[in-house]
Amino acid sequence: MIVCWSIKGGSGTTVVSAALALSLAQRNNAPVRIVDLAGDIPSALGIAEPSSAGVSDWLTNETTEPLHGLQLPVTARVSLVPRGNAQLAHHQLSVEHCTRLATELDNLPQLTVVDAGSGHIPQLIHHATTSLLVIRPCYLALRKASQLTTKPHGIVLISEPGRSLGKKDVESVIGAPVVAELPLEPTIARSVDAGLLASRIPAVLSQHLAHVA
Fold first, then answer.
1. pTM for the full model?
2. Please, which pLDDT band fits residue 4 given cuts at 50, 70 and 90?
3. The CATH number of domain 2-208 is 3.40.50.300
4. Torsion angle, alpha carbons of 90, 122, 20, 85, to 10
5. What CA–CA distances, in Å, run from 118 to 5, 30, 74, 141, 191?
């Protein structure tokens, strides 16, 4: 289970989660599941917003369907467990919720990428095989990051031109290595806006996420 998360909205966690899942499926020629705790994956992938039950309904026992039965096809190798309809925000996940979800995913024979959004969920991060913090090198984000009690295994750094803070500053503050640097590229934004991410990952995304995948 790979958990992608951030501490500040607008960091790019959803696009990173979606692109990582697509890259993993492509590079390993194996099925990959995306669990959408934040609710933004369908928009990022350019697919219709699901009206069916999802992970929030499963966690609150508002559906009797098993978790793997909630998966919706995205591509030939990528499926999505949507957020669902239950009023359970990703930052409201309890220890019991996280333990149940992690245990279930561990028992399912498929690689999973979880988009945890901007909710710092230490209980879920603790269960992750790999936890990736998606962050921009800005002072406000690093100030919050310095107060984290749960450290990520790796950092996906969204590089922005003109920033005085860089990779070494981020690694020093957070205490974890930068495993991928993604430049702010217009081609990525255009791909997401046009709903083309699922059918054609921008080369800059797949190249920079290759090491993580």
1. 0.92
2. very high
3. yes
4. -10
5. 6, 28, 23, 11, 22
